[in-house]
Amino acid sequence: MTQAAAKAPSLRLPLLVLAGLSLLVLATAMVRWSGDSIRAPDAAVVSKRDLLFQDRPDGSVAVLDANSGQQIDSITGESGFARGTLRGFARERRMRGIGPEQPLQLIGRADGRLTLLDPATGHIVDLESFGAANAAVFVRMLQGSTMRSGTSIGERS
Q: pTM here?
């Protein structure tokens, strides 16, 4: 019987691991519930543009410079990333009863990050986290002065 007791697996180690994981989950939950931001600090702003997005009858979305009112780009076709990102902002505004009249801010940062911010809701998306090709859609909006003929997001060559 003594030999059998010595060969029985010890439950001490698995119980300690389980307790440690439970504490980790609890600590993570407390940080999330506290409301403190867990984002990395933002680098300095090197460029910023206020943008309005207007749905068009043909299904495209006109991208307007909010200050000048000039169309600087157009989102046509599927353009999944651009449309999906804008849908997220529209959903946040709908939930708060805010219309599309207030512009979104497209911000280029010193560390190369690109951020789309809705000052009306506080909703923010770090665009570069979705890859360079997806962020490039918005880089054009930040850099473009006016829409060049034949230029639109989502058109296939």
A: 0.66
